[in-house]
Amino acid sequence: MIVGTVKEIKTHEYRVGLTPANVKVYTSRGHRVLVQQGAGMGSGYTDAEYKAAGASVVANAASVYGEAEMIIKVKEPVVGDLELLRKDQILMTYLHLAADLDLTETLLERGVKAVAYETIETADHRLPCLTPMSEIAGRLAVQEGAKYLEKAFGGRGLLLGGVPGVSRGHVVILGGGVVGLNAAKIASGIGASVTVLDIDASRLAYFDDVFGSRINTLYSNEANLEEVLKGADVLIGAVLIPGESAPKILRREHLKSMRPGSVFVDVAIDQGGCSETSHPTSQDDPTYVEEGVVHYCVTNMPGSVPFTSTVALTSATLKYGLTIADEGLESSVRRSPELAKGLNLYRGDTVHQGVAKSLGLYYKPFL
Questions:
Q1: DSSP alpha helices (H): ranges in 68-169?
Q2: To bridge 161 with a disulfide, which of 81, 188, 190, 234 should be the other Cys (CB 3.0-4.6 Å)?
Q3: CA nearest to 285, candidates 296, 277, 274, 269
Q4: Exposure on the CB side of residue 6, measured as CA atoms within 13 A
């Protein structure tokens, strides 16, 4: 198969879909790999390294899209990518279609075969291609929350970890999944007071086993949410329904109860956000203020640490891309339940039930 990767053109996206090490694996299996010139520079990989690994480095994205049978990216295609996609071309990337009807309709019109990293799911309900970015985003959420608490960035001017004689900051985490777990690790590690809310009692028990008395756990209901928000300095939205749009847990009146200058980091923004006040931002203009609360809603948080993110991401996605390249998409999906859940769109049809449900589209099972 001819496999291609292009330079990401989303604002401040420096990750790349394939590393030179990945290219070497593909070429060793007899596949041809096309890499757009400069595609890996943001993550620290030179064109010379790709050539040494066996890739053909081409001048522009059009050359990659024009010849490659499968495009491996990091983020969803944007203007500049979309018009280059071809009918029956395999697109493998993060898509987050449940939050973007316009993108979904465009991809349906283009007739591409779209595989979304974030919905590839194992039999034990793990999300192997989403997990590494969730780990990074969870850790970054605390880092960004701490930064925007600084007065110069519009925050309260509070140090999350506190100092002797001064109260520590309070981090509230909505959701006890991978993002929430990693956020709790960093927040408790820097000395903040931490509260995690989730609807799954067994997940809260896991947090209690891991952290003991270093954090508080609460069942996520309206009463507990209202009470805990009053004292929150950093609120982290870490809720997820795989393949579907994020539930709007937070309402405007919830934010009104928070202290002015507190910070809300919505990690769920890729799936539409978990607050009715959330809308996507970029690293160019990452925050805005609603009801006195600083909102950080950057849609590609891991892109700010591209070396770490690229290595973590491509280590997880490589085996799935290789399976498709070796066996073909249709055979791979029929054989692998994991990849079957990753297939979102196929030749003009929505074949992922969660995406169809979220967007009100007709669902046509692939299998």
A1: 101-110, 131-148
A2: 190
A3: 296
A4: 27
Q: Chain centroid to CA 34: how far?
A: 25
Element (H, E) at 194: strand 193-198
- Alpha carbons 129 and 20: distance in angstroms, whole number: 19
Q: Are strands 216-219 and 113-116 parallel, antiparallel or unpaired?
A: unpaired
Phi and psi at 279, nearest 5°, equal -145, 150
Cα 281 from Cα 298, distance rounded (Å):
5
Taking only Cα atoms into account, the Rg of the chain, rounded to an integer number of angstroms, comes to: 21
Q: Which of 41-50, 259-268, 358-367 is least confident?
A: 358-367
Q: Please write the tens of the pLDDT for every residue from 73-104.
A: 999 999 999 999 999 999 999 999 998 999 99
Dig out the tokens for 252 from the structure. 């405007």
Encoding tokens for residue 102? 């316009």
pLDDT at 296: 98
| Euclidean distance between CA atoms 77 and 112, whole angstroms | 12
Q: What is the pLDDT of residues 175-196, one digit of tens each?
A: 999 999 999 999 999 999 999 9
Alpha helices in 71-221 (DSSP H): 101-110, 131-148, 178-189, 201-211
Half-sphere exposure of 206 (CA within 13 A, CB side): 14
Using CA atoms, how far residue 213 sits from 59, 178, 191, 195, in Å, is: 56, 20, 13, 11
pLDDT at residue 355 above 90?
yes
Q: What phi, psi does 22 have (nearest 5°)?
A: -65, -45
Q: Could you give the domains of the chain? A: 2-127+305-359 (3.40.50.720), 134-304 (3.40.50.720)
The tokens for 322 are 């290789």
At residue 99, the pLDDT reads 87
Q: Provide DSSP, 29-85.
A: TT-EEEEETTTTGGGT--HHHHHHTT-EEESSHHHHHHH-SEEE-SS---TTTGGG-
The pLDDT tens digits of the residues spanning 301-325 come to 999 999 999 999 999 999 999 999 9
Q: Residue 58 half-sphere exposure, CB side, CA atoms within 13 Å?
A: 20
Of the CA atoms within 13 Å of residue 45, those in its CB half-sphere come to: 29
Active centre residues (catalytic): 96, 270
